[in-house]
Amino acid sequence: EPEVTQTPSHQVTQMGQEVILRCVPISNHLYFYWYRQILGQKVEFLVSFYNNEISEKSEIFDDQFSVERPDGSNFTLKIRSTKLEDSAMYFCASSDGGPQHFGDGTRLSIL
Amino acid sequence: AQSVTQLGSHVSVSEGALVLLRCNYSSSVPPYLFWYVQYPNQGLQLLLKYTSAATLVKGINGFEAEFKKSETSFHLTKPSAHMSDAAEYFCAVRITGGGNKLTFGTGTQLKVEL
């Protein structure tokens, strides 16, 4: 069964550094999403992306965040200058308009 | 705005016993509802979905959920728990005709004991 893959599985970064989280969505999917889950809290929506542009974003997704689909297969989340509170599990998801399929996540630890 | 409430952050059942995980939603328009399961160090796996067809929805691993509009509920059940069901379960809502984002509940950790 096709699946969403995310790399790396764990990223450790110094505060203030830029980080890029990578995702390969399911190949025939057109809708892409990023969510995050701070330890012990619920999964929160960050941003959705369709037709090469952001279709919706949450208040969490401020100017420090950006998304890109640099080629036909990857979907990336960039955090420009990381803060301690960005430490979380970040999940990528994709869909063909139906239910969203999630990757295993990238655990981001900010030191 | 839509929201989801999951009652009980931790539920413990004996192997072979009924599993009942509660989810109530709030939505001003007809919702789509989902249950996802998360095993340790893994992503979210779709268990089942309600998309305005049959109100009783059957999912994977023997789970099912019933949409009750009058109670604004979408509780998850399984007749007989198995040790492998131990995981965290998330209820999520997506509004119809709007954006596609999912709004998740806070999750219920299911423990299955011998």
Structural class of chain B: mainly beta
Number of H/I helices of chain A: 0
The count of strands of chain B amounts to 12
Residue windows where pLDDT falls under 50 for at least 5 positions of chain A: none
- Share of helical residues of chain A: under 10%
Protein architecture, described:
The complex is a heterodimer of chains A (111) and B (114). Chain A is mainly beta. Helices cover 0% and strands 51% of the residues of chain A. Chain A is built from no helices and eleven strands. In chain A, the strands form two sheets. In chain A, strands 2, 4, 5, 6, 9, 10 and 11 form a seven-stranded mixed β-sheet that branches. In chain A, strands 1-3-8-7 form a four-stranded antiparallel β-sheet, with no helix packed on it. In chain A, strand 4 (31-37) and strand 5 (43-50) form a beta hairpin. Chain A is globular, with a radius of gyration of 13 Å. Chain B is 0% helix and 53% strand. Chain B is built from no helices and twelve strands. Chain B has strands at 3-5, 10-14, 19-21, 24-26, 31-38, 44-50, 56-58, 64-68, 73-78, 87-95, 103-104, 108-113. In chain B, the strands form three sheets. In chain B, strands 2, 5, 6, 10, 11 and 12 form a six-stranded mixed β-sheet that branches. In chain B, strand 7 and strand 8 form a beta hairpin. Chain B is globular.
